[in-house]
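The material for today's practical consists of a large collection of protein records. A record pairs a protein's sequence with a compact description of its fold. Instead of coordinates, the fold is spelled out as a row of discrete tokens. We will come back to this pairing of sequence and fold again and again. Here is such a record, shown just as it appears in the course material.
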Amino acid sequence: MAGTSSAARRRGGAGGAATVVEMKLADRLAQCRAPFVVTCGSSGSTRVLNNAADCAHAVSSAPIRFVLSDDLTRLCTALAYSKGARTLACADLIRIPGEAVWIEWSCRPWLAELALHAVGVGDPAYSSGQRRGALLQGPKSGRRGTLRTFWSGATERDVLASSVEAYFDLDTPEGEEPEPPPGRSASTLRVFDPAQGAADILRRCFRFQYEPSWGDYYRDAGLSPGQQGALWRHALGTIVLDIPVLLAFFLLLGTRAGLPQSPQPFERLNRSRLKAGKAPLLAHIDVRAPLLADYRARAGAEPAYGRRGPRLHHVRGHLVRRGTELFWRVPHLRGDARLGAVRTRTVTWTFGPH
């Protein structure tokens, strides 16, 4: 199934129906043509760095493009940052469903869910009004490859790419390193969660490095070690927070029930756009969250036995793997029952044999 891009909404009105199109990030990226040029303040020399325009063809030609709904974005983020969700316990269940796959989502629900897990993001690349996306490329096995992230800028046509890329191998044995992509040197730069220890999937399976043109640029800039460290931490922050969410998405995509999907081909709309001299929109697949139990209001309910219970607070989810089944203790509110009750706190996903 092919493609990514814009969602079209039709509104009725006098004189016929008008089509209002929301530009998706993939469409903006595919239409990028201007090179990313930087100028040295001291010498006045210019340099072209690899950015969105250099990736436009890869995104527009990707055979699979997914656009996540807001509810699925929140679900994947909650699952990603629940206790245990970033461990190697589920790594063998994850498959990238193609040699080139694009995924994008809105920042607003993603940031809202991160806030519930006490993850604060202050970088402009994560503005709530923007969209984020990731391009994954690799062999048919779906177990290894490269990953780069993108986000929308201040204007509709403004798209930026991360200066840092990740490469990964989900089958990396303990004590070994994931193999770098062809033509690239191995990187020892990694991210890890001390609380996960050796079971951390980022620690074992992912490595990070600058895209070559950016690496050369920063190497030639004559930065001090302190400046290099600060710059690296900033650049790494534009990609690493997305990875657990992407892994959670691919995990859910591989469940036996799968995820609700709606292909958006835009064939009819694109014929009209081409006649009007406009660029066609990329086909994509809208993906939604499965129906899960949620909070149920209970107005007027009183605490049992007349005792004052604990104040209302949020409880993080917890993921448990048992064979071909995943049991997720759903993030929920605990405390005063008058403010809501949870129908069920456990969700089960079943996986078939790979």
Q: What stands out?
A: The two ends are 20 Å apart (CA to CA). Residues 295 and 342 are 5 Å apart (CA to CA). The first strand starts at residue 7 and ends at 11.
